[in-house]
Amino acid sequence: MIHNSGEAANERPNIIVLLKQVPDIEEVKFDTEKGTLDRSSAKAEPNPFDLNALEAGVQIKEKLGGTITVVSMGPPQAESALRDALARGADRAILLTDKKFGGADTLATSYTLASAIKKLGNFDLIICGEKTVDGDTGQVGPEVAEHLGIPHVAYVSEIKKCDKEGFVTVSQMGEYRYLTELKSFGLITVTKDINEPRLPSLRDKLKARKSEIEIWSVDDLTNGADRNKFGIMGSPTSVYKITIPSVEGRRGKIFRGTPDEATKKFVEELEKILKV
Amino acid sequence: MGEYKGVMTFAEQEDGKIHPVSYELLGKGRDIADKLGVKLSCVLLGFQMKNEVNELIYHGADKIFFYDHPSLKEFDTIRYKQNIVNLVKEEKPEIFLLGATHLGRSLGPRIAVAVKTGLTADCIDLKVDEEGNLIQIRPAFSGNILAHIKTKTRPQMSTVRYKVMEKRERDPTRKGEIIMKDAEVVENSGTNILKKEKAGEVNITEADIIVSGGRGLKKPDDFKILHELADLLGGVVGSSRPLVDEGWIGREHQVGFSGNTVKPKLYFACGISGSSQHLAGMRDSDIIVAINTDPSAPIFKVADYGIVGDLYEVVPKLVDVIGKNKNKVLS
Ligand SMILES: Cc1cc2nc3c(=O)[nH]c(=O)nc-3n(C[C@H](O)[C@H](O)[C@H](O)COP(=O)(O)OP(=O)(O)OC[C@H]3O[C@@H](n4cnc5c(N)ncnc54)[C@H](O)[C@@H]3O)c2cc1C
Ligand SMILES: Nc1ncnc2c1ncn2[C@@H]1O[C@H](COP(=O)(O)O)[C@@H](O)[C@H]1O
After folding, report:
1. With a CB-CB cutoff of 8 Å, which residues 251-270 of chain A face chain B?
2. Measured between CA atoms, how close is B177 to chain A, in angstroms?
3. Phi, psi for residue B283 in degrees, rounded to 5
């Protein structure tokens, strides 16, 4: 296990935020006939939930001091998401980019991210988004925690307390709200509720434009990591077909006219369907 | 891979009560096990819940692995993971299923990594191909596409969305085997539950009828109009995200990608445009009714019934007409 030991270090939490660049979903084109999607048409942006993760980190830093390192795995273009993160308060940004990282499922993605975190060493808290808008699994966070052998709390909607002793989180699990203490260090995944990410100032944006983004490739991680576990090689799951959810089977009856008429006709239908 | 055999499901419990998704998993698991000609087993972790064990058998399990220990009374990711991983390594099921609940989605990934296998999130359908491999179908890209996924490692693991699989009819004459397991006790799991409380009174995911409002509403007070319809039909009120963000209504009412996934018998979308993020949370509703002034609103594409009109006129009218015909409509 790796973590920050020693009092002095604990007073200044080192926070790692995992952030992915994703396509703007509203702009991705889906071909209903062929069952394919064209991401190229869409603008890329930081995964919205990961901005909540970053904001949570910034708020802890404002309170306790410390540093925020943002780590992302993705194509070289993902640099822009990392620049955005620097403008929003991160101190250091690392992009894991290599053809050999490509085609990764959640197991390989989490392995790659965990390998980078091991290389970074010193950390007290890792913060992830609840899920990504493209992969949409919510698995990468807890999987990273397992690779590192550290505890995690998922679906955190509030950080009630953070100090030297650790963190107290509020998370929503089904019908219950849990107040959970994360005793020393670990990983949390956060929901939209946790905060409202602030917008970077123009000055910070300009500064971030000139900041360095560290680029790590497979070779930077292989000291301690297994090459065969990256990318498509390390991915046990694969998508072999894509289909578009059908709206067939929907009745698609539209009622127009005056509210009186439309409502009356609709209620007649409703009577029929509620009876069957 | 040959040594992996059988289907295993995870039975989720809270306060000693089995979560209904666990019975749905057994329903689907039973179908798959029968198709493959193998046994269906189920793992339950908890404390003092003997009667529930039999319920799992009545709903289709052949064999229950029961870990009965005070340290497993409440859900603790690391403690649960440790025991399930031990079992999976011992029993080597070819398929392992969990519910895609908050709990399942927090626990499943840790198990998958620990046993070095793939995990497919939030499946809405599971099939078996000619070679006996599991085909896992799940929404991705905020519900815009369905991905069909295969796993080359064993066990093939999936989390399965609540309320999409059928549970079997309870059969109290079914017989099965109950195996009491010795729990591995993890002293310090790194987390500690300080408090646990019921969150909000509405549980929109269980509702049969939902009347949702979106930005077509002009002020917070106007949710009253929707409440009237919901009350009349015995349903609850839902919301699109912008109104929740504005603080007009609590987060527990939000339907969609970053809110709740719902599957009611009847869903009313009033003044909701039908963004992909909203659809991601309600597109599996049995019947969708859209009320919108804009005939080109995307919500009409997924609606069974659409009323082009002003919700401020249409909804009160509905309340009026349904109220008068209440016995007829709600028989
Ligand atoms: C990461 C992410 C996650 C998100 N998660 C969610 C989520 O979980 N849930 C969610 O809902 N959204 C979510 N969104 C937001 C989503 O993209 C849309 O912005 C939102 O769903 C729009 O809400 P709306 O339909 O109420 O508002 P609008 O899109 O503004 O639509 C209002 C509709 O009301 C109609 N209207 C206006 N006046 C009337 C009237 N008097 N009578 C009848 N109709 C009228 C208009 O014609 C229009 O179609 C998410 C976005 C992102 C980026
Ligand atoms: N390629 C990636 N780079 C950095 N972080 C990621 C990546 N993929 C996933 N994550 C993190 O894991 C969370 C869950 O992602 P997912 O499992 O894809 O839904 C995201 O919100 C991010 O915090």
Report:
1. 251-256, 259-260, 262-264, 266-267, 269-270
2. 30
3. -70, -15
Q: Give the best-scoring range by mean pLDDT among A233-237, A260-264, B194-198.
A: A233-237
Q: What is the ipTM of this complex?
A: 0.91
Note whether B149 contacts A263, CB cutoff 8 Å: no
Dump pLDDT digits (tens) for B118-139.
Answer: 999 999 999 999 999 999 999 9
Helices (H), chain B: 20-36, 50-58, 77-91, 102-114, 223-233, 241-245, 276-282, 299-302, 311-324, 326-329
The answer to whether residue B282 is domain-embedded is: yes
- Do residue B20 and residue B137 come from a single domain? yes
pLDDT tens per residue, range B250-303:
988 999 998 899 999 999 999 999 998 999 999 989 999 999 999 999 999 999
User: Distance from B180 to chain A by nearest Cα, in Å?
Assistant: 27
My answer on whether B176 and B210 are in the same domain is no
* Token pair for B250: 């609590």
Among the partner residues B116, B148, B188, nearest to A241 by beta-carbon distance? B148
CATH number corresponding to A14-234: 3.40.50.620
Is the minimum CB–CB distance between A236 and chain B shorter than 8 Å?
Answer: yes
Which residue among B140, B148, B302 sits closest to A134, beta carbon to beta carbon?
B140
- Contact criterion met (CB below 8 Å) for A93 and A40: no
CATH code of the domain containing B97: 3.40.50.620
- Distance between A37 CA and the closest CA of chain B, angstroms: 9
Residue A209 near residue A83, CB atoms below 8 Å: yes
Q: What is the rounded CA–CA span in Å between residue A170 and residue A250?
A: 40
Q: Record the tokens describing residue B323, joined without a space.
A: 């109220």
Domain that holds residue B77: 7-181
Tell me whether residues A155 and B106 touch, CB distance under 8 A.
yes
Extents of the domains making up chain A: 14-234, 245-276
Model pTM?
0.92
